[in-house]
């Protein structure tokens, strides 16, 4: 079982490493957001908050964005494999579909983590600082859980689709509201009740809030509450994804 999961995990990492354009291109949007929002809205945030640094608030949200986009689109590999016949060969092999799902989920989550770490490193160039090693460790846990949740979500949706372009449209329809309503770019306090309610049911909200609490000391709901929520959601979505993947037809 472990060998199967490792091979599928390694295959996705090799695909990622060989696609240099994908690696470099996926950094453009997070870097643009950090520069445009960080320096554009920074002075307004500083005045409104009484001197707080907006980059300290923004960086965890942009790291989460990078993980989110990379993780959900890992589902494209399922559709790609289906179109080129690799998925069919995998499904008829003497291995369980749960092992295939776990291998693909860990592979996609690892790639998303790498993207997040690269963006986190770039944020240092723009003035963001992490208090200490312990804070970084807790932040990495939240990054991993965000990656697991959204990789599982992407694979679950991809398992029911055959059209690559349709998958991209559905994912864009889902992830843009998930990102913008998560509090990644703006504080959740003093929001209109309707927007605040939507933010509270947004899974990314708890990942962003937990990571921000760990890396910048700014948490609305509390780190342990965020950790419990995003952990439970990650387990739940992976269980749903495993069920849907078990019903997949190549």
Automatic annotation (TrEMBL):
GO terms for molecular function: ABC-type transporter activity. Residues 21-248 form the ABC transmembrane type-2 domain. It is a multi-pass membrane protein. GO terms for cellular component: ATP-binding cassette (ABC) transporter complex. Its main location: membrane. The keyword Transmembrane applies. It comes from the Archaea. Pfam families: ABC2_membrane (PF01061). Keywords: Membrane, Transmembrane, Transmembrane helix. The chain crosses the membrane at residues 21-45, 57-80, 101-126, 132-157, 169-188, 221-245. It is found in: Membrane. PANTHER family: NODULATION PROTEIN J. This is Multidrug ABC transporter, permease protein. It comes from Methanosarcina horonobensis HB-1 = JCM 15518.
């Amino acid at each position: 079982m472990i060998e199967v999961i490792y091979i599928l995990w390694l295959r996705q990492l090799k695909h990622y490493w060989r696609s240099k354009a994908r690696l470099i291109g996926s950094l453009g949007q997070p870097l643009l957001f950090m520069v445009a929002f960080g320096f554009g809205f920074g002075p307004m945030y500083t005045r409104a908050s009484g001197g707080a640094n907006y980059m300290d608030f923004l960086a965890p949200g942009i790291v989460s964005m990078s993980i989110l986009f990379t993780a959900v689109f890992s589902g494209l590999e399922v559709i790609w494999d289906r179109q080129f016949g690799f998925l069919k060969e995998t499904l008829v092999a003497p291995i369980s579909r749960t092992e295939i799902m776990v291998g693909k989920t860990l592979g996609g989550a690892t790639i998303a983590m790498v993207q997040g770490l690269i963006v986190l490193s770039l944020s240092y160039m723009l003035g963001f600082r992490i208090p200490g090693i312990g804070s970084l460790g807790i932040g990495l846990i939240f990054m991993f859980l965000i990656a697991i949740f959204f990789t599982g979500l992407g694979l679950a949706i991809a398992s029911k689709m055959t059209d690559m372009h349709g998958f991209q449209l559905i994912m864009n329809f889902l992830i843009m509201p998930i990102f913008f309503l998560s509090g990644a770019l703006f504080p959740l306090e003093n929001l209109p009740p309707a927007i605040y309610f939507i933010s509270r049911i947004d899974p990314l909200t708890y990942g962003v809030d937990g990571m921000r609490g760990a890396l910048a000391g700014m948490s609305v709901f509390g780190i342990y509450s965020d950790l419990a929520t995003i952990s439970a959601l990650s387990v739940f979505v992976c269980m749903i994804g495993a069920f849907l993947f078990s019903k997949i037809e190549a």
